[in-house]
């Protein structure tokens, strides 16, 4: 299953394991849950891993846990566009290679980001959107980079509508939800996961003709700290649902690793994966017109020049 991205050197060891050499991986949200499990397994096959995380203490704890490998930590807060830009600037100055970007971070919560966005819109979508766009030139310098973005089965209950009145409300409200009740912020989470699927769909279109490919992933419902930012009564609403499907983080990381390392996935760029297999998405997840409009609105919200 494990293979090589770009020009990294592949060594087949006597024990039968594959080792990735001189490969740089980027894993936002890599200090807990699926991110930590993914980083550990990538580092274990010889990859150089950059943990890009907001919580410095937890990130360094995670790095210490896998300190026998080539792992470093750089601070990144996806809830701050300023932080994303500072991280990208520092990263591009210090790291000369990037083969794989894993957009792993995600949360269910209410509140606002530093820039005034609903936190699920800001962290789960816009932070990843800006980070990917800023690092894309470095990915394109390689021989076959990949972008893997964690979505969720929850995208099926999401709805992104760009009717004029809705669009104006989104730009004014800067949020994918309409309130602070449990069902409202959970619906905003579903919308943000649909954004992940549509982002990947349109990114693949833009990457046609390049050596970079991209995939969205449903890892399964995993026992992680997804709901760590909500109140106690709201956890009562969320956690029983999560326990219905209770993959451990290591198992939940397998589809991410599949999309990161499996050979021959290039024809499936832009597709959605679940249980290490391609999965057909719902009509809302393959609406190219909405995906393009989402890209344009995201550029506007992130302060990027229009590329349409």
Q: Would you kindly provide a written description of the structure presented here, covering whatever features stand out?
A:
With 308 residues, the chain is an alpha/beta fold. It is built from 10 helices and 10 strands. An 8-stranded mixed sheet has the order 5-4-3-6-7-8-9-10, with helices on both faces. Strands 1-2 form a two-stranded antiparallel sheet. The chain starts with 8 loop residues before the first strand and ends in a 6-residue tail after the last helix. The model is unreliable at 1-23 and 222-230 (pLDDT under 50).
Structural class assignment: alpha/beta
Across the major sheet, the strand order is: 5-4-3-6-7-8-9-10
Q: Give the overall silhouette.
A: globular
Count up the helices: 10
- Could you estimate the helical fraction of the residues in percent? 40-55%
What is the string of SSEs from the N terminus onward?
EEEHEHEHEHEHHEHHHEEH
Radius of gyration: 18 Å
In the predicted model, the low-confidence regions spanning at least 5 consecutive residues are: 1-23, 222-230
Distance between the termini: 37 Å
Q: Tell how many strands the DSSP assignment holds.
A: 10
Main sheet properties:
8 strands, mixed
What percentage of the residues does DSSP assign to strands (E)?
Answer: 5-15%
